[in-house]
Amino acid sequence: MTGSHPAALTRRRRSDGILYQRRPEIEAALVSLLDKTQDEIAAALQIRDSMSPNYIASECIVHLIRRTRHDNHPAHFERLFKELMRRIQATLPRFTGERLDSLENAHAAEARDRIQHAIIEKILQDRQEPGPGLDYFEVMFNDAVASLRITATARARTAIARQRPLETDGESNEPSSEVERALAEFDVKDELLSDDPIYRNRVYMAIEGLPEKQRQVIALMLKDFPLDSEIPGVVSIKSILGVKSEKTVRNRRDAAFEAIRKALKIGNGDD
Amino acid sequence: MTDPDRDAYAEDVLFEFASEPSHDRATLERYLREHPTLAAELLDMSLELEVQPEREVASAPIDEAWVAASWDLFIAKTPKAAAIDPFARLTSPETIALRRQLNVPSAVIQGFRLRMVDVTSVPNRFIQEMAESIRTSVEQLKEFLAGPPRLDPQVSYKSDRAPVVETEKISFERLLRESRVDDDRIRDLLSGSE
Fold this sequence. Notes:
The complex is a heterodimer of chains A (271) and B (194). With 271 residues, chain A is an all-alpha fold. Chain A folds into 2 domains: 1-164, no CATH class; 177-271, no CATH class. Chain A has 13 helices and no strands. The termini of chain A are far apart. In chain B, 58% of the residues lie in helices and 0% in strands. Chain B folds into 2 domains: 3-77, no CATH class; 92-191, no CATH class. Chain B contains 10 helices and no strands. In chain B, α1 crosses α3. The longest helix of chain B is centred in the N-terminal third of the chain and has 19 residues, at 39-57. Chain B has helices at residues 3-18, 25-34, 39-57, 64-77, 92-102, 106-113, 124-133, 138-145, 172-178, 183-191. The model of chain B has no long low-confidence stretch (mean pLDDT 86). The chains are: A mainly alpha (271), B mainly alpha (194). At the A-B interface, α4, α5, α7, α10 and α11 of A face α1, α2, α3 and α4 of B.
């Protein structure tokens, strides 16, 4: 079997009308993969080092899964499917330590199960009647998983929020003046400038583990939005989040900083 | 908008945002303005795009139990068409190779092909070896074997009376004994040791 070519992705368009395409390196990898035997592919699926020349990109795994639709080699499909689920898992946020029992972690666990169901539905649908449902996963796998995960998380959060009484706002949780002084010297962006990738990853994990309201403030701060603004036309964190006062934004920011400092064990004497 | 419609819309917008060449303040602001109902999701995606490269660097052990559970869920959700006959595509030389590989007489293979054997009485090790030899999965083979006993699809029957198919399944041990497998080999096969 030589000269096989992956079918073009032609169904998904951006809102400006441009068709989504596979990246050129994925197209090239597929052309080479489609000439390989199932045994060769099975061997390549064992490779975990993404820098290895024989490593199969996740986008290619999705394509190979779609191609098994009509063949009768369930063992081949099972290998591809399981590797796909490993790749999905590797892209999901993980919470450890004290956040394990937190509400946010419960959301993460539920999101993991929701993404499991969602991807299975997409594969089943694609096998029954080929459609564009998996196209994004061949274009940019990690972003497609993230889109699906965030959508699933939002749904889970809405479902839980419906069952809980309204939370009091950040106003009431003001940090003590001592904590406030310590926080004044802390800036999450400075921490993310660290040269140590493991440390940076810990900072990001701490941010991801924050309650939603605090996490949103940090996400906007990382993009340099001001907490508040009197200047016409300048969008601020306060206006985006639709809160009444700048103080609420500051309280959420300070609570977030404190939680991140604790997670990183900065300046609290217990490391 | 129903939940599935909203999910599809959210996925489209988030993916498009992710595929932007830049994720700076101006880009995020534009998306927040154009899709105000997805503000929470867009902020999560903005953060995700910052974290993603870092997460790829930090490797973590894979939860294989979740992977296996995902496969079980996929099988459970797969619409049950007639179970695929994994023996149908075997050529004669392949059938002989299978018999040699498993070191059993052809009558034993025939017992499986005709689904006469009760799958619950067969050690997993044997099922696994057979599945590998005929290039199918353990689940697919078990699903096929769980069906009722059948007539040999490769034999045409010429008789005044319709052929009768066995309705009772037999145990793996009985199949081995009736196929004249010697006692030592039966013991090995039943214990799962080779």
